Amino acid sequence: MELYALPTPAAIVDEVRLSRNLARMQARMDALGVKFRPHVKTAKCVEIARRQQALGAYAITVSTLKEAHEFFSAGFGDILYAVAIAPSKLPAVEDLVGRGCDLKIIVDSIEGAQAIVARRRAASVRFKVLIEIDTDGHRSGVKPEEARLLDIGHALAAGGCELLGVMTHAGSSYDCSTPEALRAIANQERDLCVLAGRRLRDAGLPCPIVSVGSTPTALSAEDLSGVTEVRAGVYVFFDLFMAGVGVCGIDDIALSVLTTVIGHQADKGWAIVDAGWMALSRDRSTQNQAIDQGYGLVCDRDGVALDDYIMTGANQEHGIIGRRDGAPDPGVSARFPIGTVLRVLPNHACATGAQYPEYHALRADGTLQTWPRFSGW
Amino acid sequence: MELYALPTPAAIVDEVRLSRNLARMQARMDALGVKFRPHVKTAKCVEIARRQQALGAYAITVSTLKEAHEFFSAGFGDILYAVAIAPSKLPAVEDLVGRGCDLKIIVDSIEGAQAIVARRRAASVRFKVLIEIDTDGHRSGVKPEEARLLDIGHALAAGGCELLGVMTHAGSSYDCSTPEALRAIANQERDLCVLAGRRLRDAGLPCPIVSVGSTPTALSAEDLSGVTEVRAGVYVFFDLFMAGVGVCGIDDIALSVLTTVIGHQADKGWAIVDAGWMALSRDRSTQNQAIDQGYGLVCDRDGVALDDYIMTGANQEHGIIGRRDGAPDPGVSARFPIGTVLRVLPNHACATGAQYPEYHALRADGTLQTWPRFSGW
Question: Going from the N-terminus, what domains does chain A have, and what CATH number goes with each?
Answer without folding.
Answer: 16-236 (3.20.20.10), 248-372 (2.40.37.20)
